Amino acid sequence: EIKQSSETEMYGSETETISSHRGDNYNEVNGQQQREIAPPTFLSPFRFLRRIIPHIFRKDSAYIELERLVKKIQPSAIEFTRKELRNATNGFGEELGKGGFGTVYFGTLWDGRKVAVKVIARTGKEQWGKQLAALTRKQHPNIVKLVGYCCKGDLMLVYEYMAGGNLSDSILGTENSQIIDWPARMKIICQIISGLVYLHEGADGCVVHRDIKPNNILLDEDFNAKISDFGISYILMNDTQYSHEETWTESGVPPAYAQDETQVMTHNTPYAQEQTWRVSGMPPPQFSQDETLEYTCVAGTVGYIDPDYLFHGRLTRKADIYSFGMLLLNIVSAKKSIQFTGDTDDGMFRLQDRAWRLHTEDRLNELIDQRLVNNNGLNSSNESNLSEILRTIRIALWCIQTKSKVRPSASEVLRMLSSEEEIPTPPAPIESHLDYSHDDWSTASAS
């Protein structure tokens, strides 16, 4: 599912989604799309109950299993009742944000702690489970802390309260919004990438967030940043190496979908959980020892989603790096990633296009947020800030490279941001994401 970006989100509230899932009755035969129409079926009440009851209990057992796992991994997470959270939020009276998967309310617990309570919508049960699973696996100073949950009756998640709101309101808000100086912005940037390093390279597996954007970065009063909203996150299990055999047709699809001769390929690859190979004639996946790759239904926000992932369904941790690169451009320029205007042929302003054009014309200074420029411009008195801003833009251009293999890893980005080493000139992006060369992608290097 691809989410339409909105600047009114808070505490990970999601927006309207465009689903890329296909229905159960969808078939594709020889490139033709066919939809099966099932004949009407009439069930007696007894047969209906016999069919539906196992599904009800299976769902309940899944929640019980998840609850057991949470208590094992993070015993400090509190299981709340709906009544307790209703009292804490004063009857769910102070709304902080609202989205497609739920509404977030401000609350105060019995011990005085301020919290944000997210009431999950009926359509967001899967997202509730994903966030609960991800947040109990990953605990870091720059990842929003899960205080507790409610799984009886309404599904709810209880987070620590971040008084500074989200980065979108602070950076991309109105002209009257608070001005954040460059040192504070740089601190936010370094804290976000520190959180991503932990998500991607932690000892207990790699979590790909898939929705890094200003709305999902929360701030406290001192502009400390934390990553939030793991509703569409994906866990890549890369800690187990094993050999296995995959049978592919000559055209590169599983034999169940084609009749030509097959070939057996053996990979010594990181363990990829629940792989779903797309029926599109693509070559078998190329793995390296340090890269886990999975094929999934595409999810993310327009303007931040990795084009490599969008067009080919290949999910790696580099998808988050692309989103982070776009986030860097947001922070430096105070511009949204996509805006609808009348200045271009299609009526859209794309921040990355402007960044690349100014980079090519050696005019990157024009990309910088004018609120960071004093009355005399970025002169010698703050020359170090200017140099750091320009370095950050070049790092962003490496992060938003079209080919995922060319992008640096999270730890490499952190090293570049933390050092004064010279940043190589990033190569210009390819003209079309559809002109994709798998060989180029597998051999590309940022060095």
Keywords summarizing the entry:
11 helices; transferase; CR_Ser/Thr_kinase; kinase; Protein_kinase_ATP_BS; 31% helix; three-stranded mixed beta sheet; 447 residues; single chain; ATP binding; alpha+beta
Indicate the topology.
Elements (H helix, E strand, L loop, with lengths): L1 E2 L13 E2 L7 E4 L2 E4 L9 H29 L4 E2 L2 H7 L6 E5 L2 E7 L5 E7 L4 H13 L8 E5 L5 E5 L6 H5 L10 H20 L4 E3 L8 E3 L5 E3 L6 E3 L4 E9 L12 E9 L23 E2 L4 E2 L5 H6 L1 E2 L2 H16 L4 E3 L7 E3 H10 L22 H17 L10 H9 L19 H6 L4
Parallel strand pairs: 1-18, 5-9
Antiparallel strand pairs: 1-2, 3-4, 6-7, 7-8, 8-10, 9-10, 11-14, 12-13, 15-16, 17-19, 20-21
Topology, number of strands: 21
**Percent of residues in beta strands:** 15-25%
Largest beta sheet, briefly? 6 strands, mixed
Structural class: alpha+beta
Instruction: Please state the CA-atom Rg, rounded to the nearest Å.
Output: 24 Å
Q: Please, how many helices?
A: 11
Strand order of the largest sheet: 5-9-10-8-7-6
Alpha-carbon distance between the two ends:
34 Å
Contiguous low-pLDDT stretches (5 residues minimum) are 5-10, 12-41, 48-59, 238-290, 431-447
Structure description:
The protein is α+β, with helices and mostly antiparallel strands and 447 residues long. It contains 11 helices and 21 strands. The strands form 8 sheets. It has a 6-stranded mixed beta sheet, with helices on both faces. Strands 2-1-18 form a 3-stranded mixed beta sheet, with no helix packed on it. Strand 12 (217-219) and strand 13 (225-227) form a beta hairpin. Helix 5 (182-201) runs antiparallel to helix 7 (318-333) and helix 7 runs antiparallel to helix 9. The two termini are 34 Å apart. Residues 5-10, 12-41, 48-59, 238-290 and 431-447 have low confidence and may be disordered.
